[in-house]
Amino acid sequence: MGMLGSSVNFTWSFSADVEWVDWGLKESGVKDIKTEGTLVALRPTGPVRFFPAVPPAYAGRVSGICSSPGEAIFTLSSITKNDENVYGCKIRSGSTFETEFDYARLLVLGEYELELHIVAALKNERRLIRFFSQ
User: Fold this and answer.
1) For the ranges 14-18, 74-78, 82-86, 128-132, which has the lowest average pLDDT?
2) Using DSSP, how many helices (H) and how many strands (E) does the chain show?
3) Domains of the chain listed by start with CATH number
4) Strand 2-3, strand 108-109: pairing
């Protein structure tokens, strides 16, 4: 879960012998990242710039690092309600060339407005009370 406007980290651990790690928007119904949905691509030498570019809605808000052998951390910053989605991590082994896939769902919690309409039965008054999250 992430709070509206904050940053959220997705962390995956794996064996240290990895050729590449990709992170992005999960394709519905399959164990893969959507075509043109890759947000970060990591190789042993570091992040990779790739074509096509990161989807415009995520430009400048995503990053990733291999923080230690066997761990990758992907960050999504300034999250919005539209970021509520399923994100996948695709890992390819450097020795067996097998591909593993895992995913996580991001739920965004944030501001909401709740309106209560109160009708006073005796005076037939209407009052509007608004509650805001903080």
Assistant:
1) 128-132
2) 0, 12
3) 2-132 (2.60.40.10)
4) parallel
